[in-house]
Write a structure and sequence with these properties.
The complex is a heterodimer of chains A (about 160) and B (about 475). Chain A has about 160 residues and is an alpha/beta fold. Chain A has helices at about 5-10, 30-40, 55-65, 110-120, 145-150, 150-165, and strands at about 15-20, 45-50, 70-75, 85-90, 125-130. A five-stranded mixed beta sheet of chain A has the order 2-1-3-5-4, sandwiched between helices. In chain B, about 40% of the residues lie in helices and about 20% in strands. Classes of the chains: A alpha/beta (about 160), B alpha+beta (about 475). The interface between A and B is large, with 54 and 51 residues.
Chain lengths: ~160, ~475
């Protein structure tokens, strides 16, 4: 942090891995971010955070902060009826308008906040999602193989995104 | 069969809830249910692991109050290992707790509950939120963001990590606070104190007077209260005795290790979440006119059960609050007022701890050895009394775990407050967004943290809703 503003408000690129590692494939975002941090030198222009279930706090602060990143990339497991392990970009415009989006602390449907960032704060927001295979009802830690296997490929993509910025 | 009104989700609480309101044939409320999703299987997940891992694992239960789980777990581990941690280690834990409280209570007042008051309960939900607050009182919003940054920065400085804390370990604390860090934290803590003072003045002058009628009527129920105090009855958030207060104000203190002698859990068929109640009452009844065994936790409860507060500014506010509303006070919306007094207390207490010469001591941790034992850790989380109860074998491997989290204690009263509000406001089948928001306000006052795992992009929640007729027969089931 500099000048009492968190690094995630200051650096041009912010990557947030979201999800709960206690629920199987829901831990995809955090696992991607941890792999990225362990296997790459993160360029100076980027901040990479394992946001876990606390993403809303970070987005709140960014929305209300004078300084903001230029680009935010969200990584999360999102059930969209695709093939498990499929990795795809979700357009914020496609996220259904729904009252729930206001203030969900725990998971991706912080989409009103994402919309605010994109359309009112002029931050470029990109959501990368992976179709989960197994999100158990009871606590279970660990990704299914299909999701685990695609993490290295996704990290290459993310590093390219950072370098191209 | 009458009509059901479903409010889903209830917004601006930590997690999601679904409210079902049943109307009778004449359009008046016959029943209400607050359905929530509970984290399941965590206890089983912990069994077989070395107990010292739990303080790190429990921070993943929920991203909302990781510090409370972290500290309650560390305390349970201390008890399992049978150690009393060094005084400086305890003070560092308390310092983290106090700073985390300021961050949480600021969040709740300004981001979660405050919008109802700043924007007005009838305002459209699209503006009745933090963005609306930022537009209406921009200078306040800036202060809020800055102080939340400062609190996070202090936690990072004191403990090394603010989001997923690891610094509290069995036997104490793992990171020494240097004099330089202490000095820097003090400057930040003073700024947070300024915001705490501003917040309660702002609320007393510009917010609460406008809504005093709502405060006196919305969701008001009659219950007992549970909270932690020191042995002389002073408000305590990290370690003390539990005080169970009856609705008439009489109370009994007990050691938190004995919680199973005082708290029993009731199960309802329509929700996974249990309903704790006073064991000595013999049963739970959520009948609004004749409740039995119901108690509340969180800010309103803590300020009801305590006799005093140990910091001067908060004590002054507490005296004014008690003089105005009495003891025990049952007005549900006063959770918000009590929360601001606690914000002030924690901001002051953080400064007291930072000024304590022992806070920079290097004697912060003692070694521990595994043994077969049971250990209970209990602290006051911002959202209520939090109990972690562990058992281990001779190798320190977990054999049993039981958790009671703050919001679970408030399950019965939240349901009752919703019913009260709905019955008072919905007549002859008539309701509007303002009325439904006031139903939500009666939930938000409790600042519930409903552990959940929502996985669908449209925000649907994995919950099953049974709609019942007046005889209790399921007539319709909703499943996401």
């Amino acid at each position: 942090m500099q000048n009492n503003i968190p690094d995630y408000c200051i650096k041009p690129v912010l990557i947030l891995g979201c999800g709960n590692i206690l629920f199987g494939d829901d831990g995809f975002g955090p696992e991607v971010v941890e792999y990225l941090k362990q296997n790459y030198s993160i360029p100076e222009n980027a901040e990479v955070i394992n946001a876990g279930c606390s993403v809303r706090n970070i987005l709140f602060d960014i929305i209300l902060s004078d300084k903001k990143p230029e680009k935010i990339i969200i990584i999360d497991a999102v059930g969209m009826g695709r093939i498990p392990g499929e990795f795809f970009e979700v357009q914020i415009e496609d996220i259904p308008e729904n009252k729930i989006d206001d203030f969900s602390m725990h998971q991706l449907p912080t989409s009103n906040l994402l919309r605010e960032l994109k359309f009112l704060c002029n931050v470029f927001v990109k959501v990368y999602a992976c179709q989960p295979e197994n999100i158990p009802e009871n606590v279970y830690v660990g990704l299914s193989k299909k999701l685990n296997d695609i993490i290295p490929e996704i990290c290459k993509l993310l590093i390219n995104e950072i370098n191209q910025h | 069969m009458g009509k059901e009104i479903i409010i889903q989700p209830v917004t601006r609480i930590e997690g999601h809830a679904k409210v079902t309101i049943q109307l009778d044939d004449s359009g008046n409320v016959s029943n209400t249910m607050v359905n929530v999703v509970e984290l399941r299987g965590f206890e089983k997940f912990c069994i077989g692991r070395p107990v010292e891992e739990l303080p790190r694992i429990v921070t993943s239960i929920c991203g909302v109050c990781p510090w409370s789980h972290h500290l309650a777990s560390a305390k349970a581990c201390d008890a399992v290992f049978g150690v009393e941690i060094p005084s400086a280690g305890r003070k560092l834990r308390e310092l983290c707790n106090a700073v985390a409280y300021t961050e949480e209570h600021i969040l709740h007042f300004y981001f979660l509950a405050g919008a109802d008051f700043v924007m007005g309960p009838d305002a459209d939900y699209s503006v009745r939120n933090v963005i609306g607050i930022a537009g209406k009182v921009p200078d306040v919003a800036k202060k809020v963001v800055r102080c939340r940054h400062l609190a996070a920065k202090m936690l990072q400085m004191i403990s090394g990590k603010s989001i997923h804390p690891v610094a509290a370990v069995p036997g104490g604390f793992s990171k020494v606070l240097t004099s330089e860090e202490r000095d820097e934290c003090l400057k930040m803590a003073n700024e947070v104190l300024d915001l705490a003072k501003f917040s309660i003045d702002f609320a007393k002058k510009d917010i609460f007077p406008k809504y005093i009628e709502a405060v006196k009527t919305l969701g008001v129920i009659k219950t007992g209260f549970l909270g932690t105090v020191t042995k002389d009855g002073t408000l305590e958030l990290y370690d003390g005795v539990l005080r169970m207060m009856q609705p008439d104000g009489s109370f009994e203190d007990f050691n938190y290790e004995q919680y199973t002698d005082y708290i029993e859990e009731h199960i309802e068929p329509w929700t996974y979440l249990k309903f704790p109640y006073m064991k000595k009452a013999g049963k739970l009844s959520m009948d609004l006119d004749n409740p039995i065994g119901v108690y509340r936790t969180n800010t309103l409860a803590r300020l009801n059960v305590c006799d005093r507060i140990k910091t001067p500014l908060a004590q002054k506010e507490f005296e004014e609050y008690r003089k105005a509303f009495g003891r025990p006070v049952q007005l549900t919306l006063l959770y918000n007022w009590a929360r601001l007094i606690e914000l002030l207390y924690n901001a002051e207490y953080a400064i007291q701890l930072l000024n304590d010469p022992e806070i920079t001591s290097k004697d912060i941790r003692i070694p521990v050895k595994p043994r077969a034992a049971r250990g209970v850790g209990c602290i006051e989380a911002p959202r209520g009394t939090l109990i972690h109860d562990y058992e281990t074998d001779a190798d320190g491997i977990v054999t049993n775990v039981n958790l009671i989290v703050g919001t679970t204690h408030n399950n019965a009263p939240i349901n009752m407050s919703v019913k009260r509000t709905a019955m008072d406001l919905i007549k002859d089948g008539k309701y509007d967004q303002g009325i439904l928001n006031m139903v939500e306000m009666s939930i938000r006052a409790y600042d519930p943290c409903l552990s959940c795992a929502t996985h669908n992009l449209d925000g649907r929640i994995p919950v099953k809703i049974d709609i019942m007729d007046v005889s209790g027969k399921v007539v319709k089931t909703f499943k996401n």
